[in-house]
Design a protein that fits this description.
By secondary structure, the protein is an alpha+beta fold. It has 2 domains: 176 residues, no CATH class; 146 residues, no CATH class. The chain is built from 10 helices and 14 strands. α6 crosses α9. The two termini are 29 Å apart.
Length: 385
């Protein structure tokens, strides 16, 4: 089983410049290969294989016009071409969307490192050809400091090492083979109901509130709204010609502050989901039952779209599934049309006209009253039996 690790890098100014050069070269190779494939298909020619594209790119690399390609590791461009070929093949097999050209404006900054050349210690990672000189003192530039020490296991075989840029910081991600320790899951089945008022309600009565309603997140969202309005006003002020907006240095600084806020909010929500899912797995239930939510349909409601997006239901389910697989716990997904909220847990009566605004379920048959989210979680628990 594969386990991935993603750690932030702390490069120097020279190392940061080289990382952008590597990412730009990988983007150039990907776009070049995609253009060759599209032109060949338009001309009625056969599909160009990865081997032929790499051979042709090597000739391009050795030409005098593209001499700058020689300063970048050959493994970066080879993997970029392979990624393009794989994406193009998946498109014709109806397994993915049509591949598009990578853009610097969209923030496509990433590249591959060869598994045999990369070296990782407790505090640093060594990348290939970051230093352009062979001198010993210059070779130290190949070692980039890790923000988290002893986060990535050392002395193991790494798979798919990738270097990515998220708009603020550089990250390294690797995967390793590991054997998870199976826990003795001897508890009762656990039903989990996801919602907007509370992120999750468990069948044992445990409620995990919505983090977006906390004081910290509301304060950050208020700061975010004010900064967005400030940037918008600056754009309007600088729109002197009336045709296009000019981006000043102050606007760039403000947009960078806004990006930090976006990342801060995303990290808070992601960390909160990890804490909840780890706590749920730590209870060692024999099985976990989730509901198959129609997130796309929920997003079509303009009144709920933003709240649904902030909750991250799919990410919650993904974390539960892979953490349960590590622990050896069975995960079941109830049918999308299973009436978990509408079915009375006391008599089994189904209230078909239950509105979303009714947070307390009143059974017309037996008079039972219960929180609708708790009832849904209990019904999901019974779904496992």
């Amino acid at each position: 089983m594969l386990k991935s690790f993603k750690v932030m890098l702390v490069p120097s100014n020279h190392q940061r410049t080289r990382l952008f050069q590597f990412a730009g070269t990988a983007r150039f190779a990907y776009n070049w290969a995609l253009r060759r494939e599209i032109d060949a298909h338009s001309a009625g020619e056969k599909f160009i294989s990865n081997f032929d594209l790499r051979k042709e790119f090597t000739m391009l690399r050795n030409s005098t016009e593209y001499v700058w390609l020689r300063t970048i590791s050959n493994n970066v461009t080879k993997q970029a071409i392979k990624d393009c070929v794989d994406a193009y093949q998946r498109f014709f097999k109806h397994q993915s969307e049509r591949p598009i050209f990578k853009s610097k404006r969209r923030g496509d900054f990433s590249f591959y490192q060869d598994t045999d050349k990369i070296r990782i210690t407790a505090t640093h990672v060594k990348l290939e050809a970051i230093a352009t000189s062979k001198k010993r003192n210059k070779q130290q530039l190949n070692w980039i400091r890790l923000a988290e020490h002893e986060r990535i296991p050392v002395g193991v075989k790494y798979k798919e090492p990738r270097i990515t840029f998220d708009g603020l910081n550089w990250f390294i991600s690797v995967a390793i083979e590991f054997e998870p320790e199976k826990i003795q899951a001897d508890g009762e089945p656990l039903g989990i109901d996801l919602g907007i008022k509370n992120l999750s309600t468990c069948s044992d009565g445990t409620i995990y509130p919505n983090i977006n309603r906390t004081k910290t997140v509301r304060r950050l969202k208020k700061k975010q709204r004010r900064l967005q309005r400030s940037i918008s006003r600056k754009y309007e002020i600088n729109n002197t010609k009336g045709e296009r907006y000019s981006k000043t240095r102050n606007i760039i600084k403000s947009e960078r502050k806004l990006l930090r806020l976006h990342h801060r909010l995303a990290n808070l929500r992601q960390n909160y989901r990890h804490q909840i899912t780890s706590a749920i797995i730590g209870r060692k239930p024999s099985s976990i039952v989730l509901e198959d939510l129609n997130v796309r349909g929920m997003m079509s409601n303009r009144h709920l779209a933003k709240a649904v997006q902030e909750q991250g239901f799919y990410e919650f389910r993904r974390q539960i599934e892979y953490k349960a697989q590590w622990a050896g716990i069975t995960v079941m997904v109830a049918d999308r049309f299973y009436p978990s909220s509408k079915t009375c847990i006391a008599c089994g009566h189904v209230k078909k006209d239950l509105r979303l605004s009714e947070r307390i379920y009143h059974c017309e048959n037996c008079g039972n009253e219960i929180d609708r989210d708790l009832q849904a979680a209990i019904n999901l628990k019974r779904y496992a039996s």
